[in-house]
Amino acid sequence: MFTKILIANRGEIACRVIRTARKMGIATVAVYSDADRDAVHVEMADEAVHIGPSPAAQSYLVPEKIIAACKATGAQAVHPGYGFLSERAAFCEALEAEGIVFIGPKPKAIRAMGDKIESKKFANAAKVSTVPGWLGVIENADHAEKIAGEIGYPVMIKASAGGGGKGMRIAWSQPEVRDGFDRARSEAKSSFGDDRVFIEKFVVDPRHIEIQVLADAHGNALYLGERECSIQRRNQKVAEEAPSPFLDARTRKAMGEQSVALARAVDYQSAGTVEFIVDKDRNFYFLEMNTRLQVEHPVTELVTGIDLVEQMIRVAAGEKLALKQSDVKLNGWAVESRLYAEDPYRNFLPSIGRLTRYRPPEEGQFGDVVIRNDTGVTEGSEISMFYDPMLAKLCTWAPTRLAAIDAMSEALDSFIVDGIEHNIPFLAALMQHPRWREGLISTGFIAEEYPDGFAPVIPNDDDKAVLASIATAVELLRRDRLDRLGGRLAPHSGALKRDWVVKIGEDYLSASVLEGMISIPMEIDLSIEGGKALTVASDWRPGDLIWRGTVGQRKVAAQVRPVANGFRIAWKGVSVTARAMLPRIAELERLMPEKVAPDTSKLLLCPMPGLVVSIAVTEGQEVKTGETLAVVEAMKMENVLRAERDLVVAKLNAKPGDSLAVDAVIMEFV
Where does the pLDDT of residue 204 fall: very low under 50, low under 70, confident under 90, or very high at 90 and above? Predict the structure, then answer.
């Protein structure tokens, strides 16, 4: 067994590998760029080596720097994580030439399966069912249009060396092919250094289901069940689960056996994933094989009890698998939510900045529920524009699917992230969505359910009653604390006031205190809008960011943050400003004029911090609705900014290569 390994990656996956290596008694070496000098994975590792500037192309993607770090520290093996160099056969060979072990498959398997075009050719030859498509070289956009027309719309344009939704576009008609082809090639080149793309038929309403395989160098191979990965946005997975609520035992067995046969055909040695698209009739088609550890591997670990990173290390060290297929049992249900630094209210645009607060829910087993959080950041970490926007992978396990989802819902409500925008509100709303809870999903779920983007969830009457109850309880304690401050000329509130008005968003609700005293812990009876009594119980103290307790029969964990004249309450995807007032103050508050937002209709604002890739217009140019104005890159994704109406460009305030802050003015119109 190895005594020291180097992790050629960063962030949460580097931390994840370090934890298992530490458990196995193996010393670890981290590598880091300028941007990651103070990163968590650097602090966790036994040693750390600086490998260059912040851009990945000058640090994490340079094989020579990784090899030099191995030599300098005496690392015997390299775990590549995912992304970066994890599927580069040439990197694997370079390591072998230096006597360093690659913790992953051999170059033959990486070449056969790591390239999407070659993998489909190989799968066809091996009699594996694949989606109709064009696997040859596509010369230019005209050639792409011709191929798409022959296959039939819609089509998927994909980067051959891609992954994670990068370099991927769906074209529903001929006009969309050319732009999709150009964008896919550009993203592929910047993300993977390889601009080759291919085109295949896009299966409508498919599910994305993948099989985890594990194989050693002694001819042993098995599958560890499946993962449902259909909740995607822009082909980037958002939430995963294991097992899939859609597969039956027969389909699971067929997919698993086919995946193992494919792994054996290329002499696969390590953990790998065979991805399929599955139609509504449970027909499945080979999509690709990822010759590395997947981002979503924790859900498989939770339902099988098998540490995949440990298995990868043992296989790379030449050990035989200690498992047989009959030993693999799927136990319970696991759900994973990917927490991203992005603003769900602004079409999920990237967000960068410093984490002024970062407090995940407590990990461990709590009764029948397990909570796990794989992360690579901590409070004070800087989220930069150079890398993937993932903050963490929050996972829950429970005996049943709905119990795992409910556990996830509570965990998300308890996850505190301040300083940047993040997608927790969207994930929390997803956990309440009827289609998700029933398992009636496809890869088009987000586009179908949120066609105009994600907007703040509007609470129903029952939810408003809960929010009003929390706001009243919080305000009562706040006023009681003011009364107890020394040196005050007179009590702030005097005797307990029984009648209140609570403003939830733009709605005013009456709240009456029926029974109870102001204390910590608190237990009072409230009536909201004259309804039946709700017993509100909590041990919340002023200053706590999470209000935990019960409102009536409902168990509640809600985030409470003070804002001007009230509180911001976030709960189950709902995020509202709440203010509990005495009736006279509420009467006067209704008379206050509303602020009018500034007119930005004649400005193109940068929607996220990013790098200007191109400006498609000139000053004085007339532009029609839908035409491209500029392209901005952030966190390895290119975002096309288009005209929302006919207009004339008056002034350009930015040029290609400029780094812009959010809401910076790119151009002005007349």
Answer: confident
pLDDT digits (tens, 9 = 90+) for 159-174: 877 666 677 888 999 8
Q: Is 649 helix (H, G, I), strand (E, B) or coil?
A: strand
Q: What is the DSSP string of 578-645?
A: EEEE-HHHHHHHTTSPPPPPP--TTEEE-SSSEEEEEE---TT-EE-TT-EEEEEEETTEEEEEE-SS
- Average the pLDDT over 117-142 and give the result: 80
Please identify which residue in the block is written with the tokens 């702030």: 492
If you search the block for the tokens 């039956």, which residue do you land on?
248
pLDDT in tens, 558-592: 999 999 889 999 999 999 999 999 999 999 999 88
516-546 pLDDT, tens digit per residue, is: 989 999 999 999 999 999 999 999 999 999 9
Neighbours of 622 (CB within 10 A): 10
Please report the pLDDT score of residue 494 as a whole number: 59
Active site residues: 288
Structure tokens at 440: 């009636």
| Strand pairing category for 47-50 and 27-32 | parallel
| pLDDT value, residue 491 | 57
Tell me which residue has tokens 């796990």: 372
Residue that has been written with the tokens 């968590």 in this structure: 40
Query: 522 is written with which tokens?
Result: 């608190």
Burial class (CB in 10 A: 0-12, 13-18, 19+), 525: middle
- Per the CB < 8 A criterion, the answer to whether 351 and 422 are in contact is yes
* DSSP states of 47-95: EEEE---SSGGGTTT-HHHHHHHHHHHT--EEE--SSTTTT-HHHHHHH
> Average pLDDT for residues 144-148, to the nearest whole number?
91
Handedness of CA 38, 43, 45, 48 (dihedral sign): positive
Amino acid at 649: V
Q: Cα-flanking dihedrals φ and ψ of residue 655, to 5°?
A: -135, 160
568 alpha carbon, distance to own chain's centre = 24
Q: Select from 396, 425, 424, 392 the least CA-distant residue to 335.
A: 396
Let me know the angle formed at the C-alpha of 59 by 55 and 63, rounded to the nearest 5 degrees. 140
